[in-house]
Amino acid sequence: MILVLRALGVGDLLTAVPALRALRAAYPGPELALAAPAWLSPLVDLVGGVDRLVDTTGLERPLRTGSAVSVAVNLHGRGPGSHRLLAATRPDRLLAFANAEAGCGDGPPWSVDEHEVDRWCRLLSWYDIPADGTDLGLRRPGAAGLPTGVTVLHPGSKVPAKRWPAERFAALARALTDQGHRVLLTGSADERALVAQVADAAGLSSDAVLAGRTDLGALAALVANARVVVSGDTGVAHLATGFGTPSVVLFGPVPPAHWGPPVDRPRHRVLWAGARDWPRWDGAGSHPTMAALRLDEVLAAVAEVAKVVRVSGAVAA
Question: Taking each helix axis from N to C terminus, what angle separates 235-243 and 216-224, rounded to the nearest 10 degrees?
Fold first, then answer.
């Protein structure tokens, strides 16, 4: 079997899609298993090419593969913990970034200054496995009884510094509602209070608050069939890229050059007020680079992506 480690979150999985597809093409015969948290399984089905998910929530417990591993691939990090976890499965071959501490010396060097998609494609290229970094599209799920053509605003992020201020999201929701958008607010169960705060300030009903009420599969279907998505640098933004759903992504403090959508896709608009040498932020709440993004900028970006869709017609990633 081919065992691939990517035991992280939604955006992490979706930036590894080109690498996963390259591995499937390079090894069409053996079973391809992805070691990742089980809750990501709805998205694994939309990626395609992965035969089985090996549940893992981190790097602490041994991987229970159930089969001999011919090739282990580290799409998780630079090591040593992730390297050692894969090495413990006794693969015939390990594809990974060089890490002397983990005894891995034949891989390429790690670079901190590259896009996450390009990083894993470069790793495979080192081992003569070509990967197309533009191959980010996901299988489009049906609406599954969810509303379609809605405008999805996602105020939250696991990293509070990456959040656009809640009052700005509320003002955006009010403005878009006045323009005729049906606005729905998404988030995790942990973000429900934040999302409810945004809804209350925007004058939206409780029915507009979907935080904690949708599983990952339903969230993916909602984004796939949305009119437009506005979010910070988080997993929802990568879903919009994968489905070709018009999106506006608010970046800061991490630059879009590391995690943003492809720059040549006009359906996806990036706003960023940061700089590569942004200062460390030890305060609570939104990073200053997020707070610097103005409401009028975001509204203009929403109008821009909506215009692109009207002109281009059919949805394309």
Answer: 50
